[in-house]
Amino acid sequence: MTNLQISLSRAILHCVPVVFVLLSFASAVWAADDTKPENIVAKSLDSVGTNEARAAIQSRAVEGSLRFNNLLDAAKNATGCR
After folding, report:
1. Over 70: is that where the pLDDT of 31 sits?
2. At 68, phi and psi to the nearest 5?
3. Residue 64 and residue 82: Cα distance in Å, rounded?
4. pLDDT score for 1
5. Residue 19, exposed/middle/buried by CB under 10 A (0-12, 13-18, 19+)?
6. How far apart are the C-alpha atoms of 41 and 50, rounded to whole Å?
7. What local confidence, expressed as pLDDT, does residue 6 receive?
8. Residue 77, helix vs strand vs coil
9. How many CA atoms lie within 13 A of 43 on its CB side?
10. Is the pLDDT of residue 82 over 60?
11. Which of 47, 26, 43 is nearest to 34 (CA)?
12. String of DSSP letters for 13-51
């Protein structure tokens, strides 16, 4: 490699972290209006379901039978019903 090529590759390597930091700051500024706690909670709840669907849920209890198989020790398998 010539000295010019080495200088160019060093300059590029020095620019990469600077560009990364600038892009990080830019993305933080663009998303600043959407990062309020209320918006984060609202988006999280909307990912579960609509307000109507969540309001219609009466209970989160589950009923049924269960069978648990321990793959490492077959003597510790369990079956149950509640």
Report:
1. no
2. -115, 125
3. 7
4. 65
5. exposed
6. 13
7. 73
8. coil
9. 7
10. no
11. 43
12. HHHHHHHHHHHHHHHHHHTGGG--HHHHHHHHHHHH--H
